[in-house]
C-alpha cells in the first residue's frame, strides 16, 4: 500500500513534530523501506515464507536502523535528516497493524519464523489483497492527502518542486 504508507506517515509526522524544515524525502523513504526490502524477498521466496511481511516489518529492523543512524551521524542537521528514516520505518509498522502479527513484529524474539498469510501462492494472496476494500480506502485516503499537500505546497511550480527535490522541504505552514 504505497499511498497509504506515504500519505498517512507524512500527515502524522508533520503534525506530530511540527517541523516545517523536515526533509520529507527521508521520511517517505523510511515509510516505504520495510516494503522495499520485504516485498521482493517475499515474492521470490514465497514457497519458504508465504508472506511479504518479513524481517523488515520487525521492531528489530526499526531498532537497527535507529542504531545505525545514531552511530554513524553526529548531532546536527544530518542526524535530524537521517533519523526520519527510522521514524518512517516505525510508522510503517503501525500503519500495517503489525501488532496483529506478533511473530513478525517481535522477530526473532518470539521465534525465527515470521507470520504466514495462509495462501499457497503469491498470486492468491495478491488477489485477496486487491479484493479488500479496506486496502483501496487506505490508498485513496493517502492519495487524497498527498495530492492536497502537493497542491497546497504548489509543487506544480518548478521552483518549489526543485527546492523539494534538492532539500526535501515544502513551503507549507503546518496548521
- Look at the helices and sheets and give the structural class: mainly alpha
End-to-end C-alpha gap: 27 Å
Q: Tell me, rounded to a whole number, the average pLDDT.
A: 95
The secondary-structure element order is: HHHHHHHHH
**How helix-rich are the residues, as a percent range?**
55-70%
**Number of distinct helices:** 9
Q: Radius of gyration, Cα only, in angstroms?
A: 17 Å
User: The biggest beta sheet, please?
Assistant: none
Low-confidence stretches: none
Number of domains: 1
The count of β-strands is 0
How much of the polypeptide forms β-strand, as a percent range? under 5%
Shape: globular
Q: What can you see in these coordinates?
A:
The chain is mainly alpha-helical. It has one domain. The chain contains 9 helices and no strands. The protein has helices at residues 2-17, 24-44, 46-49, 59-72, 77-95, 102-105, 122-130, 133-152, 158-167. The radius of gyration is 17 Å and the shape is globular. The mean pLDDT is 95.
Amino acid at each position: 500500500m504505497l499511498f497509504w504508507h506515504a500519505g498517512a506517515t507524512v500527515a502524522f509526522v508533520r503534525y506530530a513534530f511540527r517541523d516545517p524544515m523536515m526533509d520529507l524525502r527521508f521520511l517517505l523513504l523510511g515509510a516505504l523501506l520495510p516494503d522495499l526490502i520485504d516485498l521482493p524477498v517475499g515474492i521470490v521466496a514465497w514457497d519458504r515464507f508465504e508472506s511479504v511481511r518479513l524481517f523488515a516489518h520487525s521492531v528489530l529492523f526499526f531498532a537497527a536502523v535507529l542504531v545505525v543512524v545514531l552511530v554513524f551521524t553526529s548531532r546536527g542537521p544530518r542526524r535530524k535528516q537521517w533519523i526520519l528514516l527510522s521514524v518512517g520505518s516505525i510508522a510503517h509498522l503501525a500503519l500495517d497493524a503489525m501488532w496483529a502479527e506478533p511473530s513478525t513484529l517481535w522477530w526473532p524474539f518470539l521465534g525465527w519464523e515470521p507470520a504466514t498469510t495462509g495462501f499457497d501462492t503469491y498470486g492468491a494472496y495478491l488477489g485477496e489483497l486487491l479484493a479488500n476494500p479496506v486496502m483501496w480506502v487506505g490508498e485513496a485516503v493517502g492519495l487524497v492527502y498527498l495530492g492536497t499537500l502537493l497542491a497546497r505546497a504548489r509543487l506544480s511550480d518548478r521552483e518549489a518542486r526543485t527546492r523539494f527535490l534538492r532539500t526535501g522541504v515544502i513551503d507549507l505552514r503546518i496548521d
